[in-house]
Amino acid sequence: MPFNIFNAPVKVLQDELFCSKNLTVDVVRLDMIHPIVSGNKLFKLHYFLQEALQSSHKTIITFGGAYSNHLVATAFACQAYGLKSIGVVRGEMPEQLSATLQHCTNYGMQLKFISRVDYAKKENAYFLNDLITEFGQAIIIPEGGYHPTGAKGAALIGELIKENNYSHICTASGTTTTTAGLLLAANANQTIISVPVLKGMTDTEERLDFLCGNNYKKEQLGIFNNYHFGGYAKKTPELIAFMNYLWQQHQLPTDFVYTAKLFFAIYDQIKNDNFSPGSNILCLHTGGLQGNNSLPAGTLLF
Ligand SMILES: *Cc1c(COP(=O)(O)O)cnc(C)c1O
Q1: Is the CB–ligand 1 distance for residue 144 below 6 Å?
Q2: Atom of ligand 1 nearest to the CA of 175
Q3: pLDDT, tens digit, for every residue of 255-276?
Q4: pLDDT in tens, 140-178
Q5: What domains appear along the chain, each with residue ranges and CATH number?
Q6: Which of 53, 183, 201, 218 supports an S-S bond with 196, CB 3.0-4.6 Å?
Q7: Distance from residue 172's CA to the centre of ligand 1 (Å)
């Protein structure tokens, strides 16, 4: 294997708050699989990569914006496996590529920029056919790996924590595909908690129906909806201060788009006694740390 998605340690967080509430919080460090590529993205890609490797065309086409962690992960994984990758990017080609898109190019991804209007058609069969005509036969991965195949890959995260007695497993959510994978892999008495990082995200259950079909139990899902800090990639001084606290207290680096919001939510819910004593909580550190590069120098202590 060119990279190992199962190489992610579990760390215990020692915090007076957790002692005082008589519960534990562990973190599975998917961010340590690779310094740039978000760990959960590599899980979501797993079965798509297998499909592409078994195909004769050995090509993957996928979609994302200029700051998409999914595009970087796809570019990286395709290069590692000797696959061709094409990234369809939302918006006109900028004068200067974002750091994210530069990483994609460095990993050998061919970029195609399309207008926002065209991008909105990216699930349309005619549009996809045109892409195949342009680039040849390929495996097409929806934006963010949002597909049952992506959820099945995310379910492999369960392999990292096989003999666990976690009562709750928690993740930040964008497309909800990672949450879906956790639900597919969950033991009977576990609760999977989703912390949406988008504002007004009310369709989690519809998404899970698409991603998991009947293979999950709605009763096992918990959603903490009010931790988006104004919306996707929005932040407040309170969130930044909390990130610096996590670093000083636990040497835990987080990103402001996803994982900081997850940990803030879990701390807040623990403070408010919304986890019962005796809970053993696991949080996914999904990665995304490269996103912090867009913050002004000196904002973070790490
Ligand atoms: C993409 C991403 C998520 C969200 O995953 P979904 O499966 O889309 O819900 C969470 N954390 C990080 C760091 C990500 O890059």
Answers
A1: yes
A2: 8
A3: 999 999 999 999 999 999 999 9
A4: 999 999 999 999 999 999 999 988 899 999 999 999 999
A5: 10-39+148-294 (3.40.50.1100), 58-137 (3.40.50.1100)
A6: 201
A7: 6
